Amino acid sequence: MYLEDIYYFWKMTYTFISRYEYEVIHIDHERREVWLEQTKGTITKIIRLKQQTFDWSNHLKRDQDDVAEKVKRLSKSLVGRDIRVHLVYISQFPPVDEWEQKPIHINNGRKSVRIMTYFVPQHDRERHLGEVYEALYIKDPPFSPESEEEMESNVPQLRRAVDQAIEQNIKSQQAVLSRGKPIFTYLLIALNVIMYFVLEINGGSQDTNTLIKYGAKFNPFILDGEWWRIASSMFLHIGIFHILLNMLALYYLGNAVERMFGSARFLVIYFVSGIVGGLASFALSQNVAAGASGAIYGLFGALLFFGLIYKKLFFKTMGSNIIGILLINIVISFTIPQVDIGAHLGGLVGGFLASSLVHFPKKRNLLTQTASFIGVLVTGGLLFYAGMQTNETYEPHTEIVLASYYQQEGSFQDAYEVADEAIEEHGNKDSILYFIRSYGHIQQDRTDQALTDLKRSVELNDQNDPAWYNLAVLYARQGERDLAIEAVQKAIDINPEAEDYKDLLNQLEASG
Fold first, then answer.
1. CB-based contacts of 37: which residues, under 8 Å, 6+ apart?
2. What is the spatial distance between Cα 264 and Cα 206, in angstroms, rounded to a whole number?
3. Mind listing the pLDDT tens digit for each residue in 5-56?
4. How confident is the model over 105-156, as pLDDT tens digits?
5. Domain ranges in the chain with CATH number 1.20.1540.10
6. In what order do the strands lie in the sheet with 104-108?
7. Which is the most buried residue in 165, 229, 374, 503, by most CB within 10 A?
8. Which helix (H) or strand (E) holds 156?
9. For residue 1, is pLDDT > 60?
10. Helix (H/G/I), strand (E/B), else coil: 48
11. What residues pair up with 50 in beta bridges, in sequence order?
């Protein structure tokens, strides 16, 4: 009976959706074909219901081959590694000749795919349906057939019920992905861009001293109590490409995360990620650092947490792309020396923990959230402790940066003390440090020591034109005109655009 076939198709579809939590991933009303999915743990079950009769087994084989190709493509977006496909044909009778009932096995990368075929023909239909239930590990007894009148009236209702279930599932998925509006994402982008132009106007975003002055992460000042730099450095960027790449990432990732978690939770995730990333940078690197990368990696962590909670929806919408982009970025972080890998990985961990802490709207897990809160505190505490240990002594480059900053800001005594300690106690033999220390000697009228440091400076770096110029000034004060002319001429050779160098040379030549 053809009506009975149609009834069983829609009744089975509705039963699997409403009672056994299968999700429709494809439906064709005209051809009466539906694909259903259910994932539990590592096992994904696919039911492909088809209302069709095959006269011969070769026709069935062609359909099975088509299904196998579709499953290969579909398996890339499926979560489970063990994929079990159940082909259920609702037909008046099975093929008249023998057909292959053995499972079909497909190796598709790391995923195992097994395809099993069942017929639910008119003859003894309830028993055959029971076999399908048994294969799907459904313990409930299959539904019983109804009268022809009941089937005729129920088919339209079942069809509408299936459509409504599909529509409701789509709405619930959209609700998960759009719980908020990306207000703070745009505000953060605007704030970062404003601070970039502030840096450019006041010395340049690639100038180390300007970055330190405006709040970049600089370990010596953090140790002196300027802990706010851990947060302020999140809003500074080094160069046009740095700001463009980070703001592009913030635009896409921030949009997604703020919509999923809502604005308040998004802010918590963003700042916790940035702070944990900053602490990781403090612990693992003494370089001057700036940028929103830690917070942005935290947004990656938030999306991974989303994938943990909404695994099926994650892989259906963005999962493979997000994981691929994240892996590429981590590889780049390890291969490019200038990249602050500590901030990136710290932000990633911080973002995941912060997401678990705030969780999703209307979802609560007190145990997990408490553990995540403790995890944030422990992670931050360990990074703080590690930073205090690793920064007991400064690296040679950090000593140079610190002394240079004090020198540029006019704190000559501080610059002198840093340079002197670096040279005498730490053995840092850098041209810049000798040049800076010479200023301290000059201020204290120790001309001989100043000359010694300047000579050592140009010996270490004969392209240090300010050191040559200062040598010329000191020689001139001592009446050593020839040595002064020779020194200032070298400064001019290195930097022919410096007018004060030329003025000194003219004065020296005129005095002769």
1. 22, 23, 25, 44, 45, 46, 47, 78, 312
2. 33
3. 888 899 899 999 888 888 888 888 887 899 998 888 788 899 999 988 887 8
4. 877 767 788 889 888 888 888 888 888 888 888 888 777 767 778 888 888 8
5. 183-365
6. 23-28, 33-40, 43-51, 82-90, 111-120, 104-108
7. 229
8. helix 148-177
9. no
10. strand
11. 33, 89
Cα–Cα nearest to 486, from 463, 469, 461: 469
CA-CA distance, 413 to 417, in Å (whole number)?
6
Residues 6+ apart with CB under 8 A from 483: 471, 472, 475
What is the pTM for the complete model shown? 0.78
The candidate with the shortest Cα–Cα distance to 71, out of 86, 51, 89, is 86
* 54, 95 contact by CB (below 8 A): yes
Q: Which of 205, 273, 281, 293 is catalytic?
A: 293
Choose the CATH number for 396-511 among 1.10.10.10, 3.40.30.10, 1.25.40.10, 1.10.1040.10.
1.25.40.10
Residue 427 near residue 393 (C-beta atoms within 8 A): no
Q: What is the pLDDT of residues 155-204, one digit of tens each?
A: 888 889 888 888 887 777 776 677 778 899 999 999 999 999 999 999 99
| Residue that is written with structure tokens 């913030």 in the block | 250
Six token digits for residue 8: 């069983």
344 in catalytic set: yes
Query: What is the structure's pLDDT at 213?
Result: 94
Instruction: Single out the catalytic residue among 344, 355, 356, 457.
Output: 344
Q: Rounded distance, CA 127 to CA 184, Å?
A: 59
DSSP 141: P
Neighbouring-strand partners of residue 88: 49, 118
The CATH 1.25.40.10 domain(s) of the chain lie at 396-511
d(CA 439, CA 412): 7
Decide if domain 183-365 falls under CATH 1.20.1250.10: no
Task: Choose among 512, 478, 474, 511: nearest CA to 491.
Answer: 474
List, in sequence order, the alpha helices (H) in 360-411: 366-390, 396-408
Q: Are 105 and 83 in contact (CB under 8 A)?
A: no
Residue 321: how many other CB atoms lie within 10 Å: 9
Q: What is the largest CA-CA distance in the chain?
A: 124
DSSP for residue 217: B
Q: If DSSP codes are grouped into helix, strand and coil, which group holds residue 118?
A: strand
Q: Which of 235, 233, 203 is CA-nearest to residue 219?
A: 233
